[in-house]
Design a protein that fits this description.
CATH superfamily of chain A: Coproporphyrinogen III oxidase, aerobic
Radius of gyration of chain A: 19 Å
Order of helices and strands of chain A: HEEEHEEEHHEEEHHHHE
Number of strands of chain A: 10
Distance between the termini of chain A: 72 Å
CATH topology of chain A: oxygen-dependent coproporphyrinogen oxidase
CATH class of chain A: Alpha Beta
Number of domains of chain A: 1
Largest interface: A-B, 22 and 22 residues
Strand order of the largest sheet of chain A: 1-2-3-4-5-6-9
Oligomer: homodimer
Number of helices of chain A: 8
Strand content of chain A: 25-35%
């Protein structure tokens, strides 16, 4: 009988499964978005070749030459429907320096991190900026975080229409609510309220979009259950957003609507650069800056 | 003989003179820029009416209905030469809450502020985004800050060409150096190095432009001397930038140069939203958000 290796990471298998899930979700989403491109027959960009994702490896270098993990950035640009969309996965590890620790511990004290600053994190992050001002921009992100003394999941999704349509808002929230309710009836009310608080452009006193869900520090103690919930959030995102795209993809738009879209995108950039925790964490932990900032809009206006 | 009022603010006259200077400089600059518009005869926008500044009062409301001072925002948009330029002055006062104090004390401990958090500040801030990618964008800002136990001046100017021309960089720096040297031969080397450090987009490891000068916490003990220096920085800005505009205003440009300009402007927005101390201070102390963010480019790209 072989003794188990006392130095083995008891979380190694779970980390591998989480990272594999994020990669699978990336593949599923990229395929779904490329299908949208192929089937786009109307509108001012229908004559273009359907957009295709370009994939590129990214690296986190905490110090020059040091390995901190990395990821795969998938970006599609100037398609028929998508003006710019990034779907990034990453699996990173190393030690959290004081500054990065601060951007985490602003919200929570991570037990034991001062003594042992090792961390591991994997996740997927998606932002889609559309050609049409009739099709909402959207964001989704889920992640698993591990430190020697704790693990947790986080994530969310939010819808960013240029002009709110109550029907779309209700549909998007309903799909996310269904995914939440299947796990815990308390999740949706809590995570919806958290999104309303989180996706707020505080210096303007205005929300960046019409919300969705946001959760962090999710650790019920049952890793399998929390991982299953995080998978369901990823799936629910597609169920929530794709029908909204179908509903609006062939609607015409005006120059005025386009101009307003560019202003809304400016607000989006403000939120991400000033407040977004994932962006700040990425910039502070030395991940490939193009991957961290892929969320920024292809074109934005502050007229 | 009248006894002096023991409650009178011994700094009242100085505050008034500083505020008046910033207003005068605003008027001088706005007039100079409108002259540039009137005399612009070539290029794709020469057929437009010459741009004119619109002036609007701004208010700082630390809490709803509370008076925290205000200013005058002067903005010119979609001119022949200027795509968007803001020249704002403000005179604000009140109490620094903990968050705003932090964005100041990150660099210095302000003596006595924890016990008596009153402050007063006046300044001018200018950012010009040009139609032509051949004409550098530019920024200038000077200010006086007062607290019960301290006063100081700060400011600077930096040049942001889309492609560096060594001749322009040298000229811009020479004018600022001359203004500095007239006051203290140590100023220019120190304030140039400070600008190189300050105007750095740290997450990209690249400077936002070709520098200039930056100074803060300037208090030699001689208020008249420090005020005179700050006035000279304002004058030197015009001497440094206007000839560069003259040199390039009639040069043609290509679509590729315009596209690169929009990318450079995206970098500029990144710097201002992530790092700029004036922007952060403004957003945190509740000043009119349109005035604080007038520095953001009319159009920017992250392709």
């Amino acid at each position: 009988m072989t003794e188990p290796d006392p130095n083995a990471d008891p979380f190694a298998e779970r980390k591998a499964r989480a990272a594999a899930w994020f990669a699978e979700l990336q593949a599923t989403i990229c395929a779904a978005f490329e299908r949208l491109e192929e089937t786009q027959r109307h509108g001012p960009h229908a004559a273009l070749a359907p957009g295709r994702f370009e994939r590129r490896a990214t690296r986190r270098e905490p110090a020059p030459g040091e390995d901190g993990g990395g990821g795969v950035m998938a970006i599609m640009r100037q398609g028929r429907l998508f003006e710019k969309v990034g779907v990034n996965v990453s699996t990173v590890h190393g030690r959290l320096d004081a500054r990065a620790r601060q951007s985490l511990t602003a919200r929570r004290d991570i037990p034991g991190l001062a003594e042992d600053p090792r961390f591991w994190a994997a996740g997927i992050s998606l932002v889609a900026h559309m050609r049409s001002p009739k099709v909402p921009a959207v964001h989704m992100n889920t992640r698993m975080f591990w430190t020697p003394a704790a693990w947790w999941f986080g994530g969310g999704a939010d819808l960013n229409p240029m002009v709110e349509l109550a029907e779309d808002t209700a549909f998007f929230h309903d799909r996310l609510r269904a995914a939440c309710d299947a796990h815990d009836p308390g999740y949706y009310p809590r995570f919806k309220a958290w999104a309303d608080e989180y996706f707020m452009i505080r210096h303007r006193g205005e929300p960046r979009g019409v919300g969705g869900i946001f959760y962090d520090d999710l650790c019920t103690g049952d890793w399998e259950a929390d991982f299953a919930f995080t998978r369901d959030v990823g799936r629910a995102f597609l169920e929530a957003w794709l029908p909204i795209v179908e509903r609006h993809r062939d609607e015409p738009w005006t120059e005025e609507e386009r101009a307003w879209q560019l202003i809304r995108r400016g607000r989006y950039a403000e939120f991400n650069l000033v407040y977004d925790r994932g962006t700040r964490f990425g910039l502070e932990t030395g991940h490939n800056v193009e991957a961290v900032l892929m969320s920024l809009p292809p074109l934005a206006a502050w007229p």
